[in-house]
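STRUCTURE:
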């Protein structure tokens, strides 16, 4: 296997309220804080870990189809600024409840998908759209 030139993916999310975002992603969602730095003029960054990451490239038709499956209508922010972060979790319903209690706006409840997962759509801090999904495994 050829060595990949990319060693890490970092999705940088700008937030208007660092403490609220940290409480949401670290405390409510359960991501591990690896590093945190502070700089001049109140600059802050927290680097949170996810065990594995993928980059999913979806065309406009796919984004519309996912919206239809998860929510029943178009809710993604308009192209070309459509960004949605999806987190695989062990229990989509419990995670959805926990994130709503932590301040997420529910967009659609946990919904079975044609690809054998249960997906819920939320709006997180600062308007970032999130999907939490639970893989159901093979049919039968």
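SEQUENCE:
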């Amino acid at each position: 296997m050829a060595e990949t030139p990319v060693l890490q993916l970092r999705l940088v999310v700008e937030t208007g309220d660092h403490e609220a975002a940290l409480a949401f992603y670290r405390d409510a969602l359960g991501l591990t804080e690896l590093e945190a730095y502070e700089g001049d003029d109140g600059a802050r960054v927290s680097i949170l870990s996810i065990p594995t990451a993928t980059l999913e490239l979806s065309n406009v038709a796919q984004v519309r189809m996912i919206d239809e499956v998860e929510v029943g209508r178009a809710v993604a922010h308009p192209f070309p600024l459509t960004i949605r972060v999806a987190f695989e979790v062990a229990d989509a319903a419990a995670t959805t409840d926990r994130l709503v209690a932590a301040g997420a706006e529910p967009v659609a409840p946990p919904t079975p998908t044609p690809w054998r997962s249960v997906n819920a759509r939320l709006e997180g801090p600062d308007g970032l759209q999130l999907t939490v999904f639970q893989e159901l495994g093979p049919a039968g």
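REMARK: DSSP finds three helices and six strands in the chain.
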